From TrEMBL:
Membrane-spanning segments: 12-36
Stated name of the protein: Small leucine-rich protein 1
UniProt organism field: Marmota monax (Woodchuck)
Keywords carried by this UniProt record: Membrane, Transmembrane, Transmembrane helix
Domain of life the protein comes from: Eukaryota
């Protein structure tokens, strides 16, 4: 396997390895990191609103609680 790998690396130009393999993979990873960071920020902004909304509905409707007891 070692002679095959060394022959492959001798024939492959360095610019192809950098621009054809390394750069696209790095750009894809950076794009994924940015996408998930944006989604995480959106979720972190929505969580307090959801928690406030659930808290408001749990203790706020006394009419619903009275009807539920009877």
């Amino acid at each position: 396997m070692n002679p095959v790998l060394s022959a492959f690396l001798r024939e492959l130009p360095g610019w192809f390895l950098f621009f054809g393999v390394f750069l696209p993979v790095v750009l894809l990873l950076l794009l994924l990191i940015a996408y998930f960071r944006i989604k995480l920020i959106e979720v972190n902004e929505e969580l307090p609103q959801i928690a406030h909304h659930q808290y408001k509905h749990k203790g706020g409707s006394s009419l619903h609680q009275k009807m539920k007891r009877t």
